[in-house]
């Protein structure tokens, strides 16, 4: 499926951006100097921004506290964190302590096949999933680990930084739909723009779930590994690509105000 250039996109109905973080809002792994100003410009234009990331509940709770966003979905659809500190569990997990033990046991079984795996630095702050760093894992390694997770009754995804062992049916799109229904009932899926850069964003690129999806240019690294690709793609990579989209949205907002 072709990735259409961003200038073909219709932004007239967009009211909320659901954005990945790493590789989408970061530039070379960091937030740039104009990151917050871009979020503030979108907020002033009445365009809501919701973070949808694979990062841990612990890390994301800090982001939500400081950034001008509507909230954040953490752990690839596992939890929703409100700016006021409230936290909603989006996955059905009856016993968190037992769940963490099962995840750890699964990781150690996979580690027997891949001894060099190490938990990610934020793994200790997680609730619903277990992560280890991508590092130098090959595409064949990723596929083998995914198959092993499937055999053990877990789902698996990965991004440009981490691999995730997680409950079945836990993904960004499922979590996003739940949050939209519960907290943003005035916004329908056609008014939501999803943006990301890697395989753990793939569920948000499914046109049956969200019709307006964008990939920052670095998504091309994974286009032969994903079933669902974004409909549109920015010219620039990482946050520069997000900023490219934001400028179009802001320009569109100004034009609407003049009409």
Whole-number total of structural domains: 2
Q: Helix/strand/pairing class, anyone?
A: alpha/beta
| Bulk shape | globular
Which stretches are low in confidence, meaning pLDDT under 50 for 5 or more residues running? none
Strand fraction: 15-25%
Number of helices: 6
User: What is the rounded distance between the termini?
Assistant: 35 Å
What's the CATH architecture of the largest domain?
3-Layer(aba) Sandwich
| Rg | 18 Å
Main CATH class of the largest domain: Alpha Beta
How many E strands? 12
Mean pLDDT: 94
- Kindly report the CATH topology of the largest domain: Rossmann fold
Folded structure, characterized:
This protein has helices at residues 35-44, 57-66, 96-113, 139-151, 172-183, 238-258, and strands spanning 4-5, 16-19, 48-52, 72-74, 79-81, 87-89, 130-133, 155-158, 162-166, 192-196, 212-215, 232-233. It folds into 2 domains: 4-90 and 170-258, Rossmann fold, CATH 3.40.50.1000; 96-166, Hypothetical Protein Ta0175, Chain: A, domain 2, CATH 3.90.1070. Helices cover 32% and strands 17% of the residues. A 9-stranded mixed sheet has the order 1-12-11-10-2-3-4-5-6, sandwiched between helices. A 3-stranded antiparallel sheet has the order 7-9-8, with helices on one face. It is an alpha/beta fold and 259 residues long. The protein has 6 helices and 12 strands.
